[in-house]
Input
Amino acid sequence: MNSRVVAAIARKDIVDAIRNRYLLVALTTPLFVAILFRILLPGIGSLNTMTLVVDDPGDSRLVTQLRASPQINLIKAASAEGLPNEVENSEAVAGLAVPANFNADVAAGKQPEVTVYVNNKKSSIQQAVLKQMLEQRVLALVEPIPAKLSWIDVGREPGAQPQAGFNLNTMLFPLLLLITFGMSGALVVPLLLVEEKEKRTLDFLLTSPASLAEIVTGKALTGVVYSALIAGVLLAINHKLVGNWPLTLVTLLFGLSLVVAIGLFMGSLFQNTMQVNTWASMVLMLLLAPSFPTPGLPAALETASRLIPTYYFVEALKLSLAGTATAKLWGLLAVVLGCTVLALFAATWGLRRQLN
Amino acid sequence: MNAIEVTGLSRSFKNVQAVDDISFAVAAGEIFGFLGHNGAGKTTSIRMLTGQLRPTAGRARVAGCDVVIERDRLKPLIGVVSENQNLYERMSGRENLAFAARLYGTGNRRIDEALDQVGLSDRAGDKIQHYSNGMKQRLLIARALLHQPQIIFLDEPTSGLDPVVGRDIRRLVLELSRQGVTVFLTTHYMEEADQLCGRVAFISEGRIVALDTPDHLKVAHGKKALEVKLDDGQTLSIALDDQDAGERLEKLVKSGQIRTLHSAEATLEEVFIQITGRRLSE
Output
């Protein structure tokens, strides 16, 4: 593999993609979606200040930690019994009922139960950020997980969906990252390859010192660079949601490799831009499907969703964002890697078959 | 030494025999014409000779490299001008050449030389989408010459171009040949082949049906006769094999009635039709 040739192809594509309005829109769509979420979902811009009502008779380490955070404003509850009402009738996002023997139970590894009364009058984003923040604080206390958080909705309108289970990690952020990667996999990478076929510039590349492997690698590198750039911006905007940076970055790298490989496979199948455009939206929806919130999904569909390779990436991403490096995470990443290798093999086979 | 040596080269696609057992050799510095109607097997042959397509049988050596097993060594030694104007439309002429220079590992110095060689220096900064067909064709040639190849493959280089640009490209081809570059040329224009090529091969239905110099082909397949136009508008044909041909011609010259006098040899187009039974443009 000649790195000069790969770099030349990637450099050409990176510059050329900016000039291609269609590709530029595809690449920047996730950023627009992220901005749209911020505009449409109130509260995301004011996540820096969060009010909590706490009942903490034992002066727990958890509340001490929360008090030390400049982002959190703590109000002491008048009484343990009145905590739900106090939350509902205040500006607080939630109320925390911490048992008196919390510190001792944590030290003894007993997992004391902290009840969180979530104020459903606050925005979903605020509630989700609260959940993320609390989970991280609890995890930060000691390993293994020292306390169980029990989430209860208060002030919920009759018939409204429960909000306490909503978590930004499990929906919005993975969705945005997956849109970024999905655009790359379903549109950008296939178009980079298909345009070379359609305009017959692939013939030029194949008579130049570039080998098929170098051409494919150059295209993949372009997809990786753009996706990483956009994902980086999204990560920077939402940095508070990242529980474990190294794990998250490793997971993103695996996910990125997967979608780029899928993109190359699509690029090997299709001959012209119209075919890519026709199929891209379907493939994109399929790739994104595992990141949609689907409470109460029928078992058959739940099983079917496991046939989509991005399911394993999304599940791994959720674990990485929550900061949990479990055997399950590595298992999921292994599946992602397997799917990537398979897609790369299929793409190379498809291209070789067409060219010979 | 031969620049191209082809022995029994064949290529089939499923049930279609695109190229069928062709053999020929092209000397270094020669301009070799490869002529055939659409679908005759010209492009498939070029794709095999440039390492883009594997032959199903036979072998070929180009610039001393086996086109199947020495593809990587072959590529820097050849330049290819495809019949499709396969340039990057959103990039400028200079950017297209700069990309090729990075692929071939040649310096930027060659970009200016190549642009100058094809007369595009003053338009190098323009986007390709603003280039005329003639400019695109000249840039394609510049790109193929950038790394100073030993052999250049030109697939229909003057097709669809105005006569002035066509003439410029023909001059360039002759200049390349003078510099020692071997030129493998396919064209629909028989006059062009006649004018440029040292030898031509006719390919029909995947097989080479004739291979010789244009002159030999024309003599072998034409009439040995003179066509005489007189001042009164009459046209006479004098067969040179006739016993009294010399006497008749002498009389006409002495009478001072001759307006024009031409040999009636066949054109290359006529030879092609005679051999293949089809016009080249079909």
Chain A touches chain B at residues 4-5, 7-9, 11-12, 15-16, 19-20, 199-201, 203-211, 355-356 (CB under 8 Å). The two ends of chain A are 21 Å apart (CA to CA). Residues 42-46, 161-166 of chain A have pLDDT under 50 and may be disordered.
